[in-house]
């Protein structure tokens, strides 16, 4: 080995010198080995726990006063132990590092798998975002169409209600010259046609001159089959509207009977109008008892009541009942 100078260990460079370098330097400069061992023990305490043997040796060497040769031998033994410990530590570190490398490899594989999974998740999220955007667009279009459909439906509903009112009004207008006759016994006309019998009997029933002629377009009973002990209604269709109105006004002023049976003359209305008027039957009786009932408004169907010299009209039974409750409470 070539000759080279090794500096004496100091605080600035002691960590960069090997054990052999430190021993050689002590011999060259004549420095006591006991001092070196103490410094080496202090350094080993700071660097690693494996140098505990060196600290123990240095303590023992400080307590024992022996020749330099025994101290040197003890120091060399301590250095040998340190080197042995370093070698075992190196092998232990190598095995642990191998284990760490294996774990790092597994971790790397797991990260790669996770990255692949994240890539698939990102693609799925992107695809889902596109589908959601398409769904939102379709939902928005559907909502717009639904709003338009609701507006159209409301418009058509109002139009349908208007057309129903119009149709009902036209039907009632077509029936305006018709009268229902109730109470006439079956077979009262005998062998004569029912039309001729009614035409001849009307002046007598109304108590007017027999020379007054009422022209009827037709007169027939309901189309239902005859039932024993029950009298079917008779429908009278007048040619002139004025004749029909005259008959109705006259029948309201007197009671009419035939063969002991009371006759009733009623205006013909559509089925819907009759249904609406029946809804007012209960409250109508209240106003009839008070003497304020004034019939019905034809179209739309409304109840007419005289109150304080004015005609009040009600579209629903509830409205009429509330008005009756307020007026009677006063």
TrEMBL record:
Highest taxon of the lineage: Eukaryota
Coiled-coil portions: 118-173
Database matches in SUPFAM superfamilies: Tropomyosin (SSF57997)
Keywords: Coiled coil
InterPro entries: L1_C, Transposase_22
Protein name: LINE-1 type transposase domain-containing protein 1
Organism annotation: Anabarilius grahami (Kanglang fish)
